Amino acid sequence: MAVTFRQLQHFLVLSQELHFGRAAQRLNISQPPLSASLKQLEETLGFQLMDRSNRSVRLTAAGAVFSEHAARILGQLDAARALAEQQAKGAAGTLTVSFVPSMLFRNLPHALRKFEESYPSTGLDLHEMNTTRQIEALQQGEADVGFIHAVPLPPELVSHRIETERLVCCVPRRHRLAGRSRISISEMAGEKVLVFAREFAAHYHDRIVALLRAADVEPYTPYRVQHWFTVVALIAQGMGISLVPYSLSRSSMADVTYIEIEEAHAEHEVHMIWNKDLSSELTGVFTRFVQLHGLERVPSA
């Protein structure tokens, strides 16, 4: 039996998520067909692609190699289809994409560049905005697609989960906790714990404050800062510590250290959103591109 493109797609998404439930949700199928697809693919290939147990799913060495090549094959197929479709339908124009600043460290620039390479007749108009402002822009038709920290949305906006991201503790490099690899949130007690001002992203702010207060840690509120970058810059100068998104650890900010958090619920989601009532053909092309590839492993065209 030959390997099918559907099996490759199922396996690729599963290799990215390493979780049957999330992969099935992303593929819009139930878990049993996904499990059956993986089993059939392994039987056809004659070797195991994944080790799975009740608690975890991970790629085998062979699975990691196969995943890389599957991504390349599907990317080439999708690019060929997209370019042919663009030629046939004339998909062109300008797409306004908004994003929270931390998306710069979640591989968004690479994904945008690959989209432009796949659709050379389109242009991207990029706008940095906080989550609240993005929702307003999408409602008013000022933006086509946004990348936000997950919050409750008005009914006309739809979303696609990009990733579930861990929160980590950011401390100055010479802080008492800096040598630790993992801590509980309660160990941040007694410190000046910085959080961006609530007015800039109320739901996200409340989520982090709730995590802190559940561990009897009180946030320090006199500093009215807007961006995570400002929070980290203050920490680098020894002016406090904070719970920050893991993606910030990929930045080149010096004089800070990032520490894993023990609490399983210390995480948040990042979503792509768009307005279903104002969606254009180009919006659909872009959102399908991101839904297929995600941001972490966008293949070359």
UniProtKB/TrEMBL annotation:
Keywords: DNA-binding, Plasmid, Transcription, Transcription regulation
Gene Ontology CC terms: protein-DNA complex
PROSITE patterns: HTH_LYSR
InterPro entries: LysR_HTH_N, LysR_subst-bd, WH-like_DNA-bd_sf, WH_DNA-bd_sf
Single GO term (MF): DNA-binding transcription factor activity
Pfam family, one: HTH_1
Domain HTH lysR-type residues, every copy: 3-60
Superkingdom assignment: Bacteria
Transcription regulation keyword on record: yes
PANTHER family: HCA OPERON TRANSCRIPTIONAL ACTIVATOR HCAR, TRANSCRIPTIONAL DUAL REGULATOR HCAR-RELATED
UniProt family annotation: Belongs to the LysR transcriptional regulatory family.
Protein name: HTH lysR-type domain-containing protein
